[in-house]
Design brief:
Helix content: under 10%
Strand order of the largest sheet: 8-7-6-3-20-19-15-16
Number of helices: 4
Strand content: 35-45%
Low-confidence stretches: 1-36, 148-162
Number of strands: 31
Radius of gyration: 30 Å
Distance between the termini: 49 Å
Length: 411
């Protein structure tokens, strides 16, 4: 019997070997950091969504005989009043379509409804919802689109024995991420009809560009598999991916949708980075520079050169008051730093320098910024300043470190 390991987060309880209930993706990632010393013995009932996969375009019929065309990809399957409801898993927010289906029978031992896709020759594609008690609903489509309107939806005799030998997955466990796959991670599978000879497992990634990756098979038997995800995967964002098992006989299992978490990398944003924009550099001083943008209005006094610790930061500004009379210079600078494609702020550092204690910088509260900015994708600060007559000056700078999927642009 599989050992059950339980993790408690602030929001839910996650048990390895049990389906996830009421747990968000963030909950799963939080729990995954404590998973150690586990093996395929912990593989339990699968918490992932079971789907069917088409590698070619398929033509089905609606209940009134109209042609329904489904593109290659993954689909969830549900029983509907007029047939089977198929919904794409590759496009978020896709509307499902109902395809014509009729009752069928099977000899599989199932405890709950399961979708199954079976090829019936070179042109035919059969989708079945296999239910307990030997009952099923099946829809028959073709890749060519050639179907007779009077076509009877009943499984060809060859489909029924084939169904008995489809690789069946009944338990999954993943490390180091719990209930998710990631580069360098391990996938443990339990089930039936995998075959004694080694087959393959294909991971199908679709964001931002669809492509397939074969997992490295560490162990393979008729009822147990251990496989590793290649560690060098880059250019991929976090998204729901799909994996599918193929036995050495060429027969495929049902496909499974699983969260995929990409490799992460960090970088410091430069002041000239495309994600960094100066919306307004105040002209309130005699000498004004924001991230290299000079909006000076005049003055004959000397402004000291900006030290690298400031000039190499993400945001920096220098304002100088050249007047010697009682004439305060003041203004507000505004910036916009926006990240995309799964990138977030990781850390923020603040530096400043003033020629005298009289100079004032009205900057965002540093404590709140350090605790509130990490994890965000956009920051639009407004920084006020005042410089006394002197001549006097002030300099401020923010260095932002960001974190995101390796090989994916952040802007």
């Amino acid at each position: 019997m599989a050992r059950h390991i339980t993790f408690r987060t602030n929001r839910c309880v996650i048990a390895i070997g049990l389906a996830l209930s009421g747990c968000s993706t963030a909950d799963v990632r939080e729990a995954s950091t404590t998973v150690t010393n586990v093996t395929e013995q912990d593989a339990g009932p699968v918490p992932f969504q079971k789907i069917v996969e088409f590698d070619k375009t398929v033509h089905f019929q609606s209940s009134d005989g109209k042609d329904i065309v489904l593109a290659p990809g993954g689909y969830t399957v549900e029983v509907a009043e007029a047939g089977l409801l198929l919904t794409s898993t590759d496009k978020e927010g896709s509307e499902g379509v109902v395809v014509r289906a009729q009752p069928a029978t099977h000899q599989e031992n199932v405890e709950a409804p399961e979708p199954v896709a079976v090829s019936g020759g070179e042109d035919q594609q059969v989708v079945m919802m296999v239910m307990p008690g030997g009952k099923a609903l099946q829809a028959i489509g073709t890749h060519s689109g050639v179907q007779s309107r009077g076509m009877q939806l009943q499984a060809a005799p060859a489909n029924r024995p084939t169904l008995q030998y489809i690789p069946k997955i009944i338990g999954i466990f993943t490390t180091p991420q719990l209930a998710a796959l990631s580069p360098g991670g391990t996938l443990y599978i339990k089930g039936d009809h995998f075959g004694a000879s080694k087959g393959k497992i294909t991971l199908k990634l679709v964001v931002p560009i669809p492509h397939n990756i074969d997992l490295s098979i560490e162990e393979w038997s008729d009822d147990k598999i251990k496989a590793t995800v290649p560690g060098g995967i880059s250019g991929v964002m976090d998204h729901p991916a799909t994996f599918q098992l193929q036995a050495s006989t060429g027969v495929y299992s049902s496909a499974w949708q699983v969260p995929f978490y990409a490799n992460r990398t960090t970088k410091v944003l430069a002041p000239n980075d495309p994600a960094v924009k100066v919306l307004h550099c105040s002209t309130g001083g005699d000498y004004n520079v924001c991230n290299g943008l000079n909006t000076s209005t005049g003055g004959s006094c000397f402004a000291q050169s900006i030290a690298p610790v400031y000039k190499n930061s993400t945001l920096y500004a220098q304002h100088v008051n050249c007047d010697v009379a009682v004439d305060w210079d003041k203004g507000k600078d505004r910036y916009d730093v926006t990240l995309k494609n799964g990138w977030v702020f990781a850390t923020v550092e603040y530096f400043h320098d003033q020629s005298s204690p009289s100079e004032k910088i009205h900057s965002p509260d540093y404590y709140n910024l350090r605790t509130g900015l990490p994890g965000a994708t956009s920051w639009k600060p407004e920084i006020g300043w005042e410089v006394s007559p002197g001549p006097d000056e002030l300099i401020y700078a923010y260095r932002l470190t960001i974190k995101g999927p390796k090989g994916v642009p952040h802007y």
